[in-house]
Design brief:
This protein is an all-alpha fold. The chain folds into two domains: 1-74; 76-148, no CATH class. It has five helices and no strands.
């Protein structure tokens, strides 16, 4: 019985960590102006992302109760790298600006997989930071500065 509970808890660990990350992002979003749907503030996207992660986690846990699936060992490197990338953006965006925070986020998330090439990674960070800036700041009017 105890072994079965331990296996069940082990299979739910990724969903629980995902829910914890979503909750942390949602709570951090409230330190920024959330705004509204028509005039989004800098806390809007982290709040929606955090709530989405929590809801996704609840769905995964609910599915796990119905169908116990044996999962492979938890991959800590991707979890920690993506979490670090997201947290880097959250904590850097106001002080260092959108471009630096987004580049750090992309680089942090890309380190989830081994064998990343730095030249391609820097190009990807530049392209995604520019695209994100044009979409969120220029087009949608999210009040964030480009560089601190």
């Amino acid at each position: 019985m105890a072994r079965q509970f331990k296996q069940h808890l082990h299979s739910m660990l990724p969903a629980l960590l995902l829910a914890l990350l979503g909750l942390a992002a949602s709570l951090a979003a409230f330190s920024y102006d959330v705004g509204s749907f028509t005039r989004m503030g800098p806390g809007f996207f982290p709040l929606v992302l955090g709530i989405t992660l929590v809801l996704l986690s609840i769905g995964i846990i609910a599915r796990d109760f119905d169908h116990h699936v044996h999962l492979p060992a938890f991959a800590w490197r991707p979890f920690l790298a993506v979490s670090a990338g997201i947290l880097a953006w959250v904590f850097m965006v106001e002080t260092l600006g959108f471009f630096i925070a987004s580049a750090c986020q992309v680089i942090g998330c890309a380190l989830a997989l081994p064998g990343s090439h730095w030249r391609g990674l820097l190009i990807l960070a530049a392209v995604l930071s520019t695209g994100g800036y044009l979409l969120f700041v220029v087009q949608l009017g999210v009040p964030l500065s480009a560089f601190g």
